[in-house]
């Protein structure tokens, strides 16, 4: 089994079962590293290196990667920025339009590499800097405003609530888990809503008490989150209030701080 692979297309669906008809549970983006767990003729069960998430995907969307380059953390520092015109040019002259937050493997001097395949980077590569996160994370989050909600999505053209905050934090050098319930186990607890600041994550539960939603605080009275689309809504002790619907839509459970 070729254990170590890397995503070779801009966006690839990760599915719950090995079938084109199966539910999309997440996506791989260009440059994401995976470890192969199981193989069938067309479908491979893989685990994302960054967040540990597992899913089935079409093996043709992957390229072989040796163990040493797979584990070389220094080689995956640069990302595509929060912009809509991130273009890579392959050796044959064809273009790849890659999403914000995707990895530029082995980036150097305007080029990145998937194994032996070389890509010219036609934009300014982004190097996450945690020192500037407090002043920049709101701008990054608002880049995704009005992006449509898509279960399992991680890009401007379709994103879910946990994929949204994961991508925003990824662009600032913080790796979150994939699902809201997993993310709620990370970070440090903020005791009161009144003490929330920009960049804190608020988590919301359903009637059974399970965490099912997450959004990023914009102070202590507004939140940006993916619900129908990425939107900004007021929030208070009861939860998120949707003025268009005239009711509360999500019940607040906890608030966590990550920086």
UniProtKB/TrEMBL annotation:
Record key words, sorted: Hydrolase, Protease, Thiol protease
Domain of life: Bacteria
Keyword hit for Transmembrane helix: no
Domain NlpC/P60: residue ranges: 130-259
Domain SH3b stretches: 2-66
PROSITE patterns documented for this protein: NLPC_P60, SH3B
One Pfam match: NLPC_P60
SUPFAM superfamilies given in the database record: Cysteine proteinases, Prokaryotic SH3-related domain
Keyword DNA-binding belongs to the record: no
Family to which the UniProt record says this protein belongs: Belongs to the peptidase C40 family.
Name of the protein described by the UniProt record: C40 family peptidase
